[in-house]
Amino acid sequence: MKPFALALLLASLPLAAQTDAMPPESKAPPAQQGDMSGMKTEVKPAVKESKFLSITFRGATTTLTLTDLVKLPQATIHVHDAHTNQDVTFTGPLVSDVLARAGLTPSDDNHQLILHSTVIATGADGYYVVYSGAELEQMFSGAKAIIAVMRFELPNTEGGLIQIVNTADVKPARWVHGLASLNMMSLSQNK
After folding, report:
1. What is the pTM of this model?
2. What angle do CA 110, 111, 115 make, to 5 degrees?
């Protein structure tokens, strides 16, 4: 990651917190003059930010800060966001690298563990989705799943600072904004 991008990411944190402290009416777009349609425009609620990620694996929890995530090897992916109908570039560590920090290092010895596992990704707002362990590990999947901390080489403020993004998903319904936790559970008897 470029030093400038890292500095920009870390410098944006206090500003983002200050913006969230503002009353909702000060964040709303100004009303258009002369709009007589009587139709209400829906304002999308702000994404809850997450400044750290908790990973639970085998009963132990590892917590990584935003700075920890930025220090991990970074991958860049280019995906189409069907909600906004635009192509987007995200950068962040692979989910497999993040899971390895919590103790799940892919190897020939733990194939069964990975294949029999699920990962529940939960956002700061309580929204959660389920991934299979295999689709998040590069040894089993051609897709890339990352913990996006940068969007177009800037801090991922639109994604709540930390967001999971998967290139295999046609729609971004499982791209959890404000990602707060990854909880890995396995049915495998392999310890």
Report:
1. 0.75
2. 120
